[in-house]
Amino acid sequence: MWFILLALKADPVASQRELAAHVGIQGATLTHHLTAMESDGLLTRRRDPNNRRVHLVELTDKGEAAFRRMRDAALDFDRKLRDGIPDDEADRLRETLDRLRDNAATILSTARSTHDSD
What we know:
This protein folds into two domains: 2-62, Winged helix-like DNA-binding domain superfamily/Winged helix DNA-binding domain (Arc Repressor Mutant, subunit A, Orthogonal Bundle); 85-118. Helices cover 69% and strands 15% of the residues. The chain is built from five helices and three strands, in the order αβααββαα. The radius of gyration is 19 Å and the shape is flat.
């Protein structure tokens, strides 16, 4: 739910396809979440007047309030998590994690290329 709310804050009127890509989940899984969130009054879905096959998704006032509550909770948790860790140490950790992610992506890409050429 948090990632969907966050994506809608970045793109206030998004299509379901755009949301799925932004959140990184399959369309059917997203539809399940959107249905529940719509039932809870957090968002609305409507047909795009320019393309009736496309559903546009928007936050409601209740969805905006839920986003603010979750954002505040996330910021509070982050402050507590980082308590006592100097900024330079957190920056070094972030850089190290970024390198690990990039190395893993390179390994996966190489493995796929090797597998595809076999």
